[in-house]
Design a protein that fits this description.
The chain is α/β, with parallel strands linked by helices. It folds into two domains: 180 residues, Lyase, Ornithine Decarboxylase, Chain A, domain 1, CATH 2.40.37.10; 258 residues, Alanine racemase (TIM Barrel, Alpha-Beta Barrel), CATH 3.20.20.10. It is 27% helix and 26% strand. The chain is built from twelve helices and 26 strands. The strands form five sheets. Strands 6, 19, 20, 21, 22, 23, 24, 25 and 26 form a nine-stranded mixed β-sheet that branches. Strands 7-8-9-10-11-15-17-18 form an eight-stranded parallel β-barrel, surrounded by five helices. β22 and β23 form a beta hairpin. α2 packs parallel to α9, α5 crosses α6 and α8 runs parallel beside α9. It is globular. It starts with 13 loop residues before the first strand and ends in a 15-residue tail after the last helix.
């Protein structure tokens, strides 16, 4: 059973006597197959007079000719606009800082773009931290996450002066205090609190979610114990609490229960420790539209509702309103990105009930987008290199890997005259696609190209076979090193 915040709330609905398209697809005609819904596609995605997809003023055929296929393409202005909207909307709701969640996708250019738009960076590893630092993001605007931060990661974060470290375990309290003490500084920290709430797309569940690797339980008392220990350590400065309730969240309902439980913990700490916590970080998880069936709440509405929820809970508890912070990632970079593929093999398979399924194989797959295989994630795909008046056919877009689960788009309407060499574009792949990419079957990872105002620039170059082989010493007869 797959269960993940990025997964759909439905499964395949293919069955006898006919093949039914998934609810997210809806009906299709030769005209509507080529529509670019603005809720799903980047804001600067259009079709030219010949029906060719143009992103940021750049013809998709030229991008593939220059950078190969598959290729990730990021609309810079789209990404910047979303970052700016999040900063402004959440500032109105009482946010002192909005951190871009680097785990969604990070490279030097993206780190610079979000920093220039006023966001900090939420890093979850030494690698993400280094990219942000080398991109010129001030260390004090960086927050470090992780459920198992190594001593080396903690020492590096402390030495460069990251603004916040989110404490995720009782063991980490000791390690971090030691790292800060050795560096001779007082490190500001937040305690990540598990509140027993998981928000998932259109619904949330408020029970049985203490069983996870992240955070410290509010119910069991571990979070309060972490606070007590931190307060006794002179090298740590407790500035607030952190809570993250899920991903791909479409409304603020889950935040209501979570805020009530976090504020209850803050009230308990105020009574027991005479402690007034200045900050409350409510994490990220704001959803995006992968298909026309998805209907996420507008960023301004979401921010306003969350701010009202926290304000109401604090007033009821008699506590001052803390400064809020948030960590959107997918919501900023996800809609700004697309992936271009070239069609290879097209195979029509006769099913038991007399229907035909058309498999469209492309030159990438689970190595550049693992989310469909892992989470049953749904995507929108379109013919990008031309237009077509052919009738729609129900297809399954699959990759080239040696796995039957190597699916890119499980069900999609594509024109019946689709042919090898055509280009397909998959929308909303800016988040968790290149970031989770692998070299399975020794495929080099695709390039990431930024587009803006009719020009392109390489953000991450395409890997080559030489890159992959450089890791292999190829010593066929060398004797191994013996350890004493």
């Amino acid at each position: 059973m797959r269960a993940h915040p990025a997964g759909p709330l439905h499964g395949d609905i293919i069955g006898a006597p006919g093949i039914l398209p998934m609810a997210s697809m809806g009906p299709a005609t030769p005209a509507t197959m080529h529509d670019l819904d603005p809720a799903v596609w980047p804001m600067n995605a259009v079709r030219d007079e010949g029906g060719v997809l143009v992103l940021g003023g750049v013809d998709c055929r030229n991008l593939v000719a220059e950078h190969g296929s598959p290729v990730f393409v990021l609309d810079e202005l789209d990404l910047r606009t979303r970052a700016r909207r999040y900063r402004l909307a959440y500032a109105k709701a009482g946010a002192g800082e909005v951190y871009y969640a680097a785990k969604a996708f990070i490279c030097g250019a993206v780190a610079r773009w979000v920093h220039q738009e006023g966001l900090g960076i939420d890093a979850a590893s030494a690698g993400e931290l280094e990219v942000a630092l080398r991109a010129g993001v001030p260390a004090e605007r960086i927050l470090l996450h992780g459920n198992n931060k190594s001593m080396a990661e903690l020492q590096r974060a402390v030495q460069v002066g990251v603004g916040r470290i989110v404490v995720d375990s009782l063991d980490e309290v000791v390690r971090l205090a030691d790292a800060a003490s050795q560096a001779g500084i007082v490190q500001p920290v937040l305690v990540r609190v598990t509140v027993g709430v998981e928000a998932h797309t259109h619904e949330f569940i408020a029970t049985a979610h203490e069983d996870q690797k992240f955070g410290l339980s509010a119910a069991s008392g571990d979070a309060a114990e972490a606070v007590r220990r931190i307060l006794k350590l002179p090298s740590l400065d407790l500035v607030g609490l952190h809570s993250h309730i899920g991903s791909q969240i479409f409304d603020a309902a889950g935040f209501e229960v979570a805020a009530a439980r976090v504020v209850a913990l803050a009230l308990r700490l105020a009574q027991e420790q005479e402690l007034q916590l200045a900050e409350l970080n409510l994490g990220g998880g704001m959803g995006i539209a992968y298909t026309v069936a998805d209907d996420p709440l507008d960023v301004d509405q979401m921010a306003e509702q969350i701010g009202q929820i926290v304000r109401r809970e604090c007033q009821a508890a008699g506590l001052p309103m803390p400064t809020l912070s948030f960590e959107p990632g997918r919501a900023i970079v996800g809609p700004a990105g697309i992936t271009l593929y070239e069609v290879g093999t097209i195979k029509r398979v006769l099913l038991d009930h007399g229907q035909v399924r058309t498999y469209v194989s492309v030159d990438g797959g689970m190595s550049d987008n693992i989310r469909t295989a892992l989470y049953d994630a749904a995507y929108t795909v379109t013919l990008a290199s031309r237009t077509s008046s052919a009738e729609p056919m129900l297809t399954r877009v699959v990759g080239k890997h040696c796995e039957s689960g190597d699916v890119v788009v499980r069900d999609a309407w594509l024109p019946a005259d689709l042919a090898p060499g055509d280009l397909l574009a998959v929308a909303a792949t800016g988040a968790y696609c290149r970031a989770m990419a692998s070299n399975y079957n020794l495929l080099p990872r695709p390039a990431v190209v930024g587009v803006r105002d009719g020009a392109w620039r390489v953000l991450l170059r395409r890997e080559t076979l030489d890159d992959l082989l450089a890791l292999d010493p190829m010593d066929t007869g060398a004797e191994g090193v013996r350890l004493a």
